[in-house]
Design brief:
Order of helices and strands: HHHHHHHHH
Shape: globular
Distance between the termini: 32 Å
Largest sheet: none
Structural class: mainly alpha
Number of helices: 9
Length: 176
């Protein structure tokens, strides 16, 4: 996947260094050893947010050998970038970080190394405001992203005509 970075500059909307953002980057790297960024972007991210983080400056490929997972990662990145609140590098990097963490087996906030869903929701509210606002029923984030991808592809995700009557409702909206 190619991402147009020609307009990715720091903007006044970017807040000062956020320890939650740095923890998200480090948390995903500690679990997946990659974010899927090219080596140039990965090096800049490391200098800004991960000074002292173990490892080299290499930016390994997207996790998993299965090409379908790489395609899935790319679709998630595109979904997030289509809804980003600004054109900053930090938000670009977060899109890759969140997409990578979506490939994990735990709750998204856990695979990102965050302390709870509230921290993840705060990152999404700030960096992906329009997408955050679409989750009006507070669906779990990973499920919500995949539901959005299915909606874009015009694939029905729920087994019932409404999520509220679906037998899997608790899996999507229940407590984490």
């Amino acid at each position: 996947m190619t991402v147009d970075r020609s307009r990715d500059t720091l903007t006044p909307r970017v807040r000062p260094a956020d320890p939650i953002v740095a923890r998200a980057f480090a948390g995903v790297l500690s679990r997946f050893h990659t974010l899927g960024l090219d080596s140039r972007e990965f090096s800049v991210l490391r200098r800004r947010h991960l000074a002292g983080h173990a490892g080299d400056d290499a930016a390994p490929e997207v996790p998993g050998c299965d090409p379908l997972r790489a395609e899935e990662h790319g679709e998630l990145v595109e979904l997030l970038l289509a809804h980003r609140a600004d054109r900053s590098r930090e938000t670009l990097w977060l899109a890759f970080t969140i997409a990578t963490a979506c490939l994990g087996d735990n709750h998204l906030w856990q695979d990102m190394g965050l302390n709870g869903r509230e921290e993840l929701s705060g990152l999404l509210r700030w960096h992906f405001t329009a997408l955050y606002a679409r989750n009006v029923h507070n669906m779990k984030w990973k499920k919500f992203f995949y539901k959005e991808l299915c909606r874009q592809a015009q694939v029905a995700l729920c087994k019932a005509p409404s999520c509220r009557v679906c037998t899997d409702y608790a899996a999507c909206f229940g407590p984490e």
